[in-house]
């Protein structure tokens, strides 16, 4: 029979283990949030990990070692990226050169567009407000473009750092993730072990499905947009396609944000109504494919959140981390929801 001293020792050990797990998670979160480039590298590493995990597991079931099962898809993806970069480099270089040459023309056209908008505004708010609006908007654009050019070396340096760190982290997450999780679970008190294990399994399953589905969705939307804009001869189709694919990860407002640069370009360059209609048709086709096929077949029911909750957490994410916060707000909220639900059920069940 267990004595009172033994019972106290067990409870104290459980509290120490729980405190150790909590401190470990808080420390990891602080490192990820505070160290430069760590957050983006970690998130991208998680995306790579969940994207390659089914292939790695399949190769491992076929008798390959864990390391070999990881190296093969890494090499395959690396070759595909290298081949794609080689094939797209002439197009990207040409579009960058065109953008550099046409930058003064774009600024002049944007000012003209603002003057036209200001002219219509003056009917309602007066010419003083019209001039103020045009001047402020033009100054803002000029400051933004100059800042982008000034920060370009820093941005490229960050992209290079992330492109090195993310695959590095992903490799070790795939190879040692299960071992790391076993060590963490050993620190969990026995009375919470089942809760932690089930919660980890649920979050792992949901995040894996969500990330793979959203990555596929972004690739298809971006690819359709790029192909469609290229077919109608619209400029900067590669960059607009990439932008549409990335912003499509933001629920509800993502497609609007993704289409905005193209419409601004069309208005600045005073393209014909036919071009604008065709361009709108491209974005509409991409969203129809997304809504009619990808979301119902792949994304639906993976994350069960109320639309109001989605809007609120997107706003919170944008305030905390900008566009990145808007993208990760949904999976983070889903994980929190699973955690709260699991803890609540555990407490209620324990009391009963």
Written description of the protein model:
Helix 3 packs across helix 7. The protein has 352 residues and is mainly alpha-helical. It has a domain of 153 residues. The chain has 9 helices and no strands. It is elongated and about 85 Å long.
Approximately what portion of the residues adopt beta-strand conformation?
A: under 5%
Low-confidence segments, ≥5 residues, pLDDT <50?
none
Q: How many E-type strands? A: 0
Overall mean pLDDT = 77
Structural class: mainly alpha
Elements, N to C (H/E) = HHHHHHHHH
Amount of helix = over 70%
Shape: elongated
Summarize the structure.
This protein is mainly alpha-helical.
Write the layout of secondary structure elements.
Elements: H1 4-34, H2 38-61, H3 66-125, H4 127-186, H5 190-231, H6 237-247, H7 254-268, H8 273-299, H9 307-351
Helix pairs in contact: 2-3, 2-4, 3-4, 3-7, 5-6, 5-8, 5-9, 6-7, 7-8
Task: Give a quick set of tags describing it.
352 residues; mainly alpha; 9 helices; elongated
């Amino acid at each position: 029979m267990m004595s009172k001293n033994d019972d106290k020792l067990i409870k104290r050990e459980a509290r120490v283990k729980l405190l150790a797990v909590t401190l470990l998670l808080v420390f990891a979160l602080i490192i990820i949030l505070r160290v430069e480039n760590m957050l983006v590298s970690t998130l991208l590493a998680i995306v790579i990990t969940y994207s390659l995990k089914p292939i790695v597991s399949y190769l491992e079931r076929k008798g390959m070692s864990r390391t070999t099962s990881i190296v093969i898809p890494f090499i395959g993806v690396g070759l595909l990226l290298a081949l794609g970069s080689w094939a797209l480099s002439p197009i990207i270089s040409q579009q960058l050169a065109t953008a550099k040459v046409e930058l003064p023309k774009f600024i002049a056209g944007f000012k003209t567009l603002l003057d036209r908008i200001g002219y219509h505004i003056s009917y309602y708010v007066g010419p003083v407000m019209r001039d103020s609006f045009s001047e402020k908007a033009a100054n803002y654009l000029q400051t933004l473009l100059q800042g982008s050019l000034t920060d370009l070396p820093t941005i490229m340096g960050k992209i290079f750092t992330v492109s090195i760190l993310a695959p590095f982290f992903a490799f070790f997450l795939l190879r040692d993730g299960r071992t790391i999780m076993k060590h963490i679970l050993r620190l969990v008190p026995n009375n919470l072990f089942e809760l932690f294990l089930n919660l980890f399994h649920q979050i792992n399953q949901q995040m894996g499905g969500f990330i793979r589905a959203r990555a596929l969705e972004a690739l298809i939307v971006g690819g359709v947009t790029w192909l469609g804009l290229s077919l109608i001869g619209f400029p900067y189709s590669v960059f607009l396609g990439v932008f549409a694919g990335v912003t499509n990860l933001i629920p509800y407002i993502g497609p609007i944000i993704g289409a905005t640069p193209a419409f601004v370009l069309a208005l600045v360059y005073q393209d014909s109504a036919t071009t604008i209609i065709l361009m709108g048709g491209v974005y509409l086709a991409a969203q129809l494919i997304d809504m009619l096929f990808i979301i119902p077949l792949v994304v639906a029911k993976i994350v069960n959140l109320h639309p109001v909750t989605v809007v609120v957490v997107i706003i919170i994410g944008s305030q905390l981390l900008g566009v990145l916060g808007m993208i990760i707000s949904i999976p983070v909220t889903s994980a929190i929801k699973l955690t709260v639900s699991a803890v609540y059920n555990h407490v209620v069940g324990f009391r009963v």
